[in-house]
Amino acid sequence: MKSLISIMGLNVSEIDSLMALADDIIARPESYQDAMRRKKLGSLFFEPSTRTRLSFEAAMLELGGQVLGFSEGMSSSAAKGESVADTIKTVSCYVDIIAMRHPKEGAPLVAANNATVPVINAGDGGHNHPTQTLADLFTIHREKGRLDNLTVGVCGDLKFGRTVHSLLEAMSRYAGLRFVLISPEELKVPSYVKQHLKHNAIPYDQTESLAEALPELDILYMTRVQKERFFNEADYIRLKDSYILTPAKLENAKKDLAIMHPLPRVNEISVQIDKDPRAVYFKQVLNGKLMRMALILMLMEATK
Ligand code: NCD
Fold first, then answer.
1. Whose CA is nearest to atom 8 of ligand 1?
2. Number of independent structural domains in the chain
3. Is the CB of 227 under 6 A from ligand 1?
4. 46 lies in a domain?
């Protein structure tokens, strides 16, 4: 039985198949409305979530399935000290597939090792977020028509931002890419992610200056500073507004730039930019639901 713990658990052709499936769901939604009839998704969220949880749940409902679960760990027996392994062995008795978010890095892997149904990592601490990456890749595919030959800027909290880690890993498999990693010194990409880029011979630059990087970018992927991962509030306050994208700052950007953000946004993108046709972050939200539908279909097909 197949789970999705890291985006590297899907090869490029599986990602292509998922995108083709999502394109087909857009074209023929009625063909999928009973695909998960009598199937149940366990939605186990030990950390706050708006888009990821609700898009998984909407995805399962749109496929004709049902959903049960919890939206905070303290309402489960985790509050009494139950281990992830025991929770998952239990939930496996009730559902056909599980989406799980947890503050501890590696918890979804422990879950997958103890589950008798597929487990999807819906975000583990500051580590990975593979289904956000599926949303991001599908957005780039639809906006740019390709996933190769792009200059991609990622900006903000590259240290704790798990969506960035998964996105860089996933994109390192496409040809002709170049990354510009834009962050304050203290929030640089972890070395294991950089090793990954080096290993795949993907060129990248690191800079603190968004203004200098902007003119050459095809994609700008903004992220929020991850307050909940800081040990010390003073550091968060000092770093939280490191980058604020405003219409004035976009003056030197490409006309076909795609501005992305996994959301939630705090201050990093001025709301005035929402009207700019280059802003695609709310399209990412919809694309996330479509790719989660495709993923549920693929993982459930693999259990047959
Ligand atoms: C992200 C996450 O949870 O990592 N949100 C999301 O799932 N779209 C990004 C974030 O919280 O900053």
1. 262
2. 2
3. no
4. yes
Q: Tell me what percent of the residues of the chain surpass a pLDDT of 70.
A: 100
Answer whether residue 2 is part of any domain. Answer: no
- Domain of 195? 130-284
Look at residue 231 in the predicted model and tell me its pLDDT: 87
Atom of ligand 1 nearest to the CA of 101: 3
Do the Cβ atoms of 161 and 136 come closer than 8 Å? no
HSE-CB of 125 using CA atoms within 13 angstroms:
10
Query: From the alpha carbon of 263, which atom of ligand 1 is closest?
Result: 8
Helices H / strands E in the chain, number of each: 10, 9
Q: What is the average pLDDT score of the chain?
A: 97
Model confidence at 233: pLDDT above 90? yes
Q: What's the confidence (pLDDT) of residue 1?
A: 63
Q: Which pLDDT tens digit goes with each residue over 88-97?
A: 999 999 999 9
CATH code, domain with 61: 3.40.50.1370
In a domain, 225, yes or no: yes
